[in-house]
Amino acid sequence: MPWAVYGRNYISSEAINMQRGMTLIETIIYLAIFSIMMSGAVASTYQLARSGEQLGADNVVSGEIDFIFRKISWLFMGATSANILGPDILEINRLGDVYTLSPSNNGQALTLDNQSLNTQRIQIEDLEFTAPGSNRVGIGFKVNEREFYLEQLVPP
Question: Cα–Cα distance between 119 and 67 in angstroms, integer?
């Protein structure tokens, strides 16, 4: 049996041949561990991407709802009267001009004098104007199954 010098030790050539590579079982185990790690990394990346999309969509909705509320508040500043002409039509007299809030023809947008206040990214549902008290107008609607309500004071 041939012997080889390995460092300061004498090792048989059979022992050297046994140390050269990994066995099939070791390779399969390493591949299985690597596959489990990669599937976890892919799942985490996918979850991060989805949560980022949802956050972006929520920001769009919040921004558009905020714009609608600011536009309605602007209408009521200086308003002399507000008349509910139907459950979903409101007429506001402001500084000598008459403005009408109503749903769009397809019912998915809130319009001010036939100009949409929201983009197509959100859909306004269940628009309703109410008179909860004297000199008050309530405006309620739903966006993405979330309900919004705003009350405005109308000068007497």
Answer: 11
Helix (H) or strand (E) holding 152: strand 146-153
List all residues 6 or more positions away from 84 whose beta carbon is below 8 Å from its beta carbon. 90, 91, 129, 130, 131, 137
Between CA 69 and CA 140 the distance in angstroms is 11
- Residue 89's DSSP bridge partners are 86
Q: What is the DSSP letter of 141?
A: E
pTM of this prediction exceeds 0.85: no
Whole-angstrom distance, CA of residue 4 vs CA of residue 13: 6
Say how far apart CA 154 and CA 156 lie, in whole Å: 6
**Which amino acid type is present at position 21?**
G
Q: Where are the beta strands (DSSP E) in 25-96?
A: 79-86, 89-94
pLDDT tens track for 108-155: 888 888 888 888 778 888 889 888 777 888 999 888 888 989 888 887
pLDDT band for 7, please (50, 70, 90 cuts).
Answer: low
